[in-house]
Design brief:
- There is one protein chain.
- The protein is an alpha/beta fold and 328 residues long.
- The chain is built from 11 helices and 9 strands.
- A hairpin with a 4-residue loop joins strand 2 and strand 3.
- Helix 5 packs across helix 6, helix 6 packs across helix 7 and helix 7 packs across helix 8.
- The radius of gyration is 22 Å and the shape is globular.
- The two termini are 29 Å apart.
């Protein structure tokens, strides 16, 4: 291979290690995606291949390096997202500042949409995060709220969600009210446990600094000096949505997350999420973050599942659908 068919990218030691990955798995993903050879001779990364391949690979390498340099962990999902952004020419998450906590290190945006979402959470009093499952809407809102609590910027972190799950009702579950509620709150407790760890989560919950409860428990309250997260908001009725949005008190902020395509209410038209976004988008202090299938950060198959369902919904509505990706 000729000398002009290679390019050296100087990187920090941590960034070069992240680009290579465990047993060079990250480098292999980049090589397969752009048909290049990735080497780490020390002090950076060497790319060998044709011009187009090196250009795409360089974008991916720089995105991975930027994430590593913030102190955030870099996994295979991050590498795949960097590759996808490099292929399409869309901006990645870049070097957006990470949230300085989490059991597995700093928590940072993985996509440009997530970076914009975190920026909105830091600037606005009310932020709607809407889009498909697996895009990090709830996890990042919980992480942001937990960071505010740890820094003393709020006194409480309150997470609420409708007790509606695929037609089940609280009365069908055994135990007292807390035992009935906990199954509906399991995803939130899992996120909090992943971010804070079991011991700190238990201590702060016992002190009343962290509260997770159904929306029905919010009625009649004024939530002051708190970061409030309304999760699975597509299953809140219009009346519930208005009620919970008007609970905000002095020094409080709120994030509302949900997927309008996954409404479990008997009458889908009762959902308050799309209605609230429609009338509040553009109001001072309100921001709306919209996620797409390409922002899914779970297993690569999840993105393809979301795209397949979106295409089916478009066909049923008589709309043109975008081609589905079949590769990983």
């Amino acid at each position: 291979m000729s000398r002009d068919a290679q390019e050296f990218i100087p990187l920090t030691e941590d960034a070069a290690r992240a680009v290579s990955g465990p047993s060079s798995r990250h480098a292999a993903l980049i090589e397969d995606a752009f048909r290049v050879l990735v080497e780490t001779p020390g002090g950076g990364v060497m790319l060998k291949g044709d011009s187009a391949g090196r250009t795409g690979a360089k974008r991916a390498v720089q995105a991975i390096a930027a994430r590593a340099d913030t102190g955030a962990a870099v996994g295979e999902s991050d590498v795949r997202l960097a590759i996808s952004a490099a292929r399409t020419g869309e901006p990645g998450a870049g070097g957006s500042p990470p949230l300085p906590m989490g059991r597995r290190g700093a928590i940072a945006a993985k996509t440009a949409a997530q970076a914009a979402y975190l920026d909105m959470l830091g600037r606005c009093e009310l932020v709607f995060g809407i889009g498909p499952a697996g895009t990090g809407k709830t996890f990042l809102a919980v992480a942001h709220g937990a960071s505010l609590l740890l820094r003393g910027e709020v006194d409480r972190l309150i997470v609420t969600r409708p007790a509606v799950e695929a037609g089940e009702r609280l009365g069908f579950l055994p135990g007292d009210m807390n035992e009935k509620v906990d199954p509906y709150m399991a995803p939130v407790w899992e996120a909090l446990n992943d971010i804070l760890g079991a011991d700190q989560l238990r201590r702060r919950r016992d002190k009343g600094e962290i509260e997770v409860a159904p929306i029905a428990f919010m009625r009649g309250r004024t939530l002051s000096s708190a970061f409030v997260i309304v999760d699975e908001a597509q299953n809140a009725t219009r009346l519930q949505m208005k009620m919970v949005l008007t609970r905000l008190g002095e020094g409080s902020r709120m994030a509302v997350t949900g997927d309008p395509s996954q409404v479990d209410l008997p009458n889908r038209a009762d959902s308050g999420l799309a209605h609230a976004v429609g009338i509040l988008d553009g109001v001072k202090g309100v921001a709306v973050a919209r996620f797409k299938a390409e922002d899914v950060v779970r297993h690569p198959l999840v993105e393809r599942i979301v795209r397949a369902y979106d295409a089916d919904a478009a066909r049923q509505a008589g709309l043109p659908s975008t081609p589905r990706e079949t590769d990983a």
